[in-house]
């Protein structure tokens, strides 16, 4: 069994949901028609998948640029010549991150839990009057064990899905103006964890028994389905949309968890999973590689299209994706352009 097979197919021995749900999906790689498997894999880094690319003249937006794979995504895209707009929860966080990389960057504040902040961010990006070649929706949130809500729904769903939903929709004109605009949604294999995850349209506030991991998995399925429906809606344009699982990586995403869980996660990640340059590889590959110019509507892992072999997963559930779009529009209608 090689590293890739372990990551995608092994059963976790730990009882920590954040770990076990990410490594027991039973997923298999398949190459959809006309989409060959790439030469890259689990050990590839963001620099390796962009080797030889000149992104001069391209404009990218990366949410959550101040740490983890978001920072590495910004760093490598800027290194290859792209002008990167980097967002952070505060302008200081974004500014500090942008100042730490080589290349052309523009910091913008974006607090995804505050829809007014999302609108201000989109307005600031539009004011730059630049076509948007890449929009990488990277920022993510894992809640603590206490239930939190915003706008009447689960806070994790608001941050991971609805905030990005508003941002992407408000920037579609700039994506269309690019030679080939790409939307990249950082999702997770948590979206196909067991028991099967489905969008809980009748309980988006998560009334009743709350489980932080189910909340996260639910939001990551929303990311995947948003990408799927966006690809459908953009099929007659030059805009593409794909989602991805970056791998399990030692970042600060578990910052809201108990100290013991953070410690276990860190030890497990050090032993078995990707480092940050490897974790950013699929995001950067989807955003920039010429081979994917006409590829849209797929879910990727390790720089390759992925199908979950378990039939009950909903990664490609088009009916659910269409309904999610409609419900998301209703929930955010006052903030859409």
CATH fold type: Rossmann fold
CATH class: Alpha Beta
One letter per element, helices H and strands E, the order comes to: HHEHEHEHEHEEEHHEHEHHHEEH
CATH architecture: 3-Layer(aba) Sandwich
Largest sheet: 9 strands, mixed
Strand proportion: 5-15%
Which secondary-structure class do the elements indicate? alpha/beta
Can you tell me the overall shape? Answer: globular
- Total separate domains: 1
For the termini, the CA-CA separation is: 50 Å
- Helix amount, in percent? 40-55%
Spatial strand order of the main sheet: 1-11-10-9-8-5-2-3-4
Give the integer mean of the pLDDT values: 87
- Uncertain segments are 1-27
What is the helix tally? 13
Keywords:
337 residues, alpha/beta, Rossmann fold, nine-stranded mixed β-sheet, two-stranded antiparallel ribbon, 11 strands, 41% helix, disordered N terminus
Description:
β8, α9 and β9 form a beta-alpha-beta unit. Mean pLDDT is 87; it is low at 1-27. It contains 13 helices and 11 strands. It has one domain (3-30, 40-335): NAD(P)-binding Rossmann-like Domain (Rossmann fold, 3-Layer(aba) Sandwich). The radius of gyration is 18 Å and the shape is globular. α6 (115-127) packs parallel to α7 and α7 (155-170) packs parallel to α9 (212-233). The chain has a 9-stranded mixed β-sheet, sandwiched between helices. The chain has helices spanning 3-9, 17-23, 46-49, 68-79, 91-99, 115-127, 155-170, 172-177, 212-233, 259-272, 276-279, 281-288, 318-332; strands at 27-29, 59-62, 83-88, 105-109, 134-137, 149-150, 153-154, 182-186, 240-245, 299-301, 304-308. The longest helix has 22 residues, at 212-233. It has 337 residues and is of the alpha/beta class.
């Amino acid at each position: 069994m090689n590293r890739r097979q372990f990551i995608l197919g092994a059963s976790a021995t730990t009882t920590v949901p954040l770990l076990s749900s990410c490594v027991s999906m039973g997923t298999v790689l398949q190459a959809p028609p006309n989409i060959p498997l790439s030469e890259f894999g689990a050990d590839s880094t963001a620099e390796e998948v962009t080797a030889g690319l000149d992104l001069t003249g391209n404009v990218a937006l990366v949410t959550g640029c101040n740490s983890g794979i978001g920072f590495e995504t910004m760093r490598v895209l800027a290194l290859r010549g792209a002008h990167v707009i980097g967002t952070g929860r505060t302008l200081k966080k974004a500014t500090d991150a942008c100042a730490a990389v080589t290349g052309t960057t523009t910091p913008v504040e974006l607090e995804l839990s505050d829809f007014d902040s999302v609108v201000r961010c989109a307005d600031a990006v539009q004011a730059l009057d630049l076509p948007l070649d890449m929009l990488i929706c990277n920022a993510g949130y894992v809640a603590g064990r206490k239930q939190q809500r915003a706008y009447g729904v689960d806070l994790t769903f608001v941050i991971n899905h609805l905030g990005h939903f508003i941002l992407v929709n408000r920037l579609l004109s700039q994506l269309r103006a690019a030679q080939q605009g790409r939307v990249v949604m950082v999702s997770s294999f948590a979206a196909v964890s067991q028991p099967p995850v489905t969008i809980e349209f009748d309980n988006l506030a998560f009334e009743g028994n709350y489980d932080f991991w189910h909340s996260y998995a639910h939001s990551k399925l929303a990311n995947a389905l948003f990408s799927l429906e966006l690809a459908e809606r953009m099929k007659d344009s030059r805009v593409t949309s794909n989602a991805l699982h970056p791998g399990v990586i030692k970042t600060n995403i578990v910052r809201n968890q108990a100290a013991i869980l953070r410690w276990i996660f860190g030890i497990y990640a050090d032993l078995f999973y990707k480092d940050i340059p490897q974790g950013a590889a699929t995001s950067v590959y989807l955003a920039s590689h010429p081979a994917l110019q006409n590829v849209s509507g797929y879910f990727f892992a390790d720089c390759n299209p992925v199908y979950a072999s378990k039939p009950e997963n909903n990664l490609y559930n088009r009916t659910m994706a269409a309904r999610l779009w409609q419900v998301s529009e209703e929930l955010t209608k006052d903030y859409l352009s």
